[in-house]
Design goal:
Strand content: 15-25%
Largest sheet: 9 strands, mixed
Radius of gyration: 28 Å
Distance between the termini: 73 Å
Shape: globular
Helix content: 40-55%
């Protein structure tokens, strides 16, 4: 009976799982005709279910409930697949990337970002133009998204906003895959946003029309956020403090320095820089406290719920409707409404409902790292946090509250741990200390920042700025502590799955004192550890040469055990080195790196550079080829010397 009640309580969770599996299974499909076949199968499945429901007693459907349930799950799986394929613009017959055109009519689909004289933005294509010998130029319907990069005029830089319509030359190129080992997969990242092509232009090649496209609400939200950012810019003198204020309160990260990002990442507080669940939650707590006098009767409670939801969405408007805030606003709205009308409503069901709504709107969100981590963190707070807090019941009220905060931080960190190291390759050792440290300052900064914006209380700006500096300097001190973070952690998808299953099983085992689950989790940990040991042993005995593909530069890594001699014209602190070379060295578990430019003879262990030749074990390469290795259309070359006895 209890299991049936539980199944009824988590109906959306049972809907979400097969729906998500359908999206994942058909994400990489390249056949547009599949959408019709899957649509037909959906219709057949739905029709059968309707017939079963209408003639339930006549068909004695209660005798095959399990088969009916299987059919429902198949329908949900097919609906996920259908939603995924239908949203894949590249498979549409009107997609601009498969047409021959001279010009494209596009509109700016996000907030343009200007860095180092390059203006970048996403654009939505509405028409393509075919040039003819005689005017007028023929236009045809076209759809799709495009990544646009514009080299601006330093004397008279163009200003673009969300919704601006442009005519641009159709000099499109397909997004290139990563050419080097462990390099960030920019192509896959953009593909998850339905973007497969890009274009590089000069400012003079753009023609701005007098019309505007896009969602007027989003346009207003972004314009409003721009005004608030400018207000902060005038009141906050320190550049880092201003960037932090704009990021923390408004979700505007364009001016945030790499040093600040690195500090928050090393201390495990990067979530504070993403205006999301924590920020919206803080606003909800204050509003709920301020409006508690409306709890007198059901009508006033309804007014309270409506007021809170409206104010939460007004804050989302203030942040420019950033994706992370929209996720949090939808989740919180669903939670407030469900709990207000039914106090017994299941929290897992509410989260599943919010995730389902978002995936119906945009199925590719399932690949978004922020989407994954935010929902995992909330699941951790709902499931793990109460269980961790029950480990200890201090008598002192303040110690009990402190333990509650620690339990909350532990729950969120533990459940996101496997995905964090898989995506970001590092783990903050002092995450508890840093999260406890920022708990009060971040809350104060949120409230102060919003009060300054809404009330225009300029006299509070110096206090606001000082508090930001204090928070940043405190986190920097923690980040600079010895062994502040474990970095260069690389795990495969198999290891990610094993670690996730192991952590989940051990949490369930400890919560319910289940010995079998504990043994299974320990088995998963042992298998995971065996993979890690194998990788370590392989790294100790490895002998490899990696020739990197870097535009306008050259780099070749000669790897012996856990030492790498890098023949390159890049310095280790250079962005190109950190982006193209360092990830590959980290993946190969390199502990010692020696960089040489090749302008003089060098002998280091089994590596010898003399005259025009490089000798590495039994391998010989001419130095000229290392500097002029052309791999414009192919991936970086990696040679495993353990499998090659001799080569020239």
């Amino acid at each position: 009976m209890e299991s049936q009640v539980f199944k009824a309580e988590v109906v959306f969770l049972r809907i979400l799982l097969p729906f998500s599996m359908g999206i994942i299974a058909f994400y990489h499909t390249t056949s547009a005709s599949l959408v019709y076949w899957i649509g037909l199968l959906c219709l057949i499945s739905f029709t059968i279910l309707i017939i079963i429901n209408l003639f339930y007693k006549k068909l004695k459907a209660y005798n095959f409930k399990s088969w009916t349930a299987v059919l429902i799950y198949i329908l949900l799986f097919l609906l996920g697949a259908f939603t995924c394929i239908a949203n894949k613009q590249r498979l549409n017959k009107d997609y601009f990337g498969v047409k021959k055109q001279a010009y494209l009519r596009v509109w700016v689909n996000d907030e343009p970002q200007l860095k180092s004289g390059i203006l970048r933005f996403r654009a939505s294509v509405t028409k393509s133009y075919l040039p003819k010998k005689s005017d007028p130029i023929e236009s045809i319907k076209a759809i799709g998204k495009l990544m646009v990069s514009v080299k601006t005029d330093s004397l008279n830089s163009i200003r673009l906003s969300y919704g601006d319509e442009l005519i641009i030359p159709a000099r499109i190129t397909e997004i290139a895959p990563p050419y080097n080992p462990a390099e960030f997969d920019y192509k896959s990242w953009l593909a998850s946003q339905n973007i497969y092509h890009q274009v590089y232009l000069k400012q003079a090649q753009l023609t701005k029309t007098n019309t505007s496209q896009g969602n007027p609400i989003i346009a207003y939200a972004l314009a409003l956020r721009t005004k608030q950012v400018q207000y902060y810019r005038k009141r906050i003198k320190d550049d880092d403090a201003f960037a932090m204020a704009a990021t923390l309160i408004l979700g505007y990260r364009a001016d945030l320095s790499q040093e600040t990002l690195s500090t928050y990442s090393k201390t495990g507080t990067i979530h504070a820089l993403s205006v999301s669940g924590m920020h919206v939650g803080l606003i909800y707590l204050v509003l709920n406290w301020m409006l508690q006098y409306l709890n007198r009767n059901s009508l006033l409670k309804l007014l309270k719920v409506g007021t809170i939801i409206i104010l939460v969405w007004l804050y989302a408007l203030l942040t420019g409707f950033s994706p992370s805030v929209l996720r949090s606003a939808i989740m919180l709205s669903a939670f407030i409404i469900a709990k207000s009308f039914n106090r017994q409503s299941n929290s897992y069901n509410i989260i599943a409902f919010a995730a389902f709504c978002l995936l119906v709107y945009n199925p590719f969100l399932i690949w978004d790292v922020g989407f994954q981590l935010s929902f995992l963190a909330v699941l951790g707070l709902i499931y793990l946090q109460p269980k961790i807090q029950n480990w200890w019941h201090p008598q002192n009220k303040w110690i009990n509250k402190l333990w509650g905060i620690i339990a909350m931080s532990l729950a969120a960190q533990l459940i996101t741990f496997p995905f964090s190291i898989y995506y970001f390759h590092q783990f903050p050792i002092y995450f508890l200390i840093s999260n406890l440290f920022i708990m009060v300052p971040i809350a104060l900064l949120m409230y102060l920042g919003i009060v300054i914006l809404l009330g225009r209380f300029e006299f509070l700006a110096p206090i606001f700025e000082w508090l930001i500096k204090f928070t940043n300097s405190g986190l920097k001190w923690i980040a600079d502590l010895p062994l502040s973070s474990l970095s260069a952690i690389w795990i495969s998808r198999t290891e990610l799955l094993l670690l996730s299953v192991a952590l989940y099983c051990i949490a369930v085992a400890l919560a319910g004192f289940k010995k079998r689950m504990l043994l299974f989790s320990l088995t998963c940990f042992m298998v995971f550890q065996s993979f890690a040991v194998y990788d370590k042993v392989e790294a100790i005995y490895q002998k490899k040469i990696i020739v990197f593909n870097i535009r306008k530069n050259y780099a070749t890594a000669f790897i012996s055990k856990q030492k790498a001699i890098v023949f390159t014209n890049l310095l280790p602190e250079n962005k190109g080195f950190k982006y193209f070379i360092q990830p590959a060295l980290d993946q190969h578990k390199i502990k010692e790196i020696v960089c040489i430019k090749g302008n003089k003879d060098t002998t280091i262990a089994d590596f010898k550079l003399k005259n025009q030749d490089v000798a590495f074990y039994n391998y010989r390469i001419n130095r000229f080829h290392l500097k002029h290795y052309d791999l414009k259309t192919s991936k970086a070359h990696e040679e495993n010397l353990d499998k090659k006895k001799d080569g020239r």
